[in-house]
Design brief:
The structure holds 2 protein chains of 2 kinds. Chain A is mainly beta. Chain A has no helices and 11 strands. In chain A, strands 2, 4, 5, 9, 10 and 11 form a 6-stranded mixed sheet that branches. A 5-stranded antiparallel sheet of chain A has the order 1-3-8-7-6, with no helix packed on it. Chain B is an all-beta fold. The model of chain B has no long low-confidence stretch (mean pLDDT about 95). At the A-B interface, strand 5, strand 9 and strand 10 of A face strand 5 and strand 10 of B.
Chain lengths: ~110, ~110
């Protein structure tokens, strides 16, 4: 079992729709969870962090965490073509000295 | 303020050679982590340094080594390069010892081994 698993996609949604990205993790002791966005040829950029169960909203982005199910998700509302990128789920391991990344989900937003 | 700076941006090396990659973290950040990203995959953890001490090491062979200097800049060294070492090498800077607020990444060094 991979430490952090994501559907590789690609996920294609029309402009204005909600994009839903999912992630599961294996380390039950993890306390910090992140979503990074990576445009083609660029480095990852932190867009959301979440630390407790429930939802956290920031603009058009909502991160959701369920520690019991070891599940993290990212919702992007009113998706724009500029949201087209790879979204990386990242989980900090127990002890905190290593952040594990999933393989990423490629998102395409069609105009 | 300057972000995380990495040098060089691109590098071509021959199998068996040695390479040194450099990183300067954001001013005030004392934690530097190194990641390897192969095309189509997520970043893979190599090392984490805090206050010049190694705090974490990923599943990479001993050919990979790193260090952090008193000014918190860092070097990643790879010996006896293999074709499979071709990747984007990312340096990540964090204010906190355990990066619990996430990373700021540099633009990366694209290493090609031929």
């Amino acid at each position: 079992q991979k430490e952090v698993e994501q559907n590789s996609g690609p996920l294609s949604v029309p402009e204005g729709a909600i994009a839903s990205l999912n992630c599961t993790y294996s380390d039950r002791g993890s306390q910090s969870f992140f979503w990074y966005r990576q445009y083609s040829g660029k480095s990852p950029e932190l867009i959301m962090s979440i630390y407790s169960n429930g939802d956290k909203e920031d603009g058009r982005f909502t991160a959701q965490l369920n520690k019991a199910s070891q599940y993290v998700s990212l919702l992007i509302r009113d998706s724009q073509p500029s949201d087209s990128a790879t979204y990386l789920c990242a989980v900090q391991n127990t002890g905190g000295f290593k952040t594990i990344f999933g393989a990423g989900t490629r998102l395409f937003v069609k105009a | 303020d300057a972000g995380v700076t990495q040098s060089p941006t691109h590098l071509i090396k021959t199998r068996g050679q040695h390479v040194t990659l450099r990183c300067s973290p954001i001013s005030g950040h004392k934690s530097v982590s190194w990641y390897q990203q192969v095309l189509g995959q997520g970043p893979q953890f190599i090392f984490q340094y805090y206050e010049k001490e190694e705090r974490g090491r990923g599943n990479f062979p001993d050919r990979f080594s790193a260090r952090q200097f008193p000014n918190y800049s860092s070097e990643l060294n790879v010996n006896a390069l293999l074709l499979g070492d071709s990747a984007l090498y990312l340096c990540a800077s964090s204010l906190y010892e355990t990066a619990e607020r996430g990373y700021t990444f540099g633009s990366g060094t694209r290493l090609t081994v031929v």
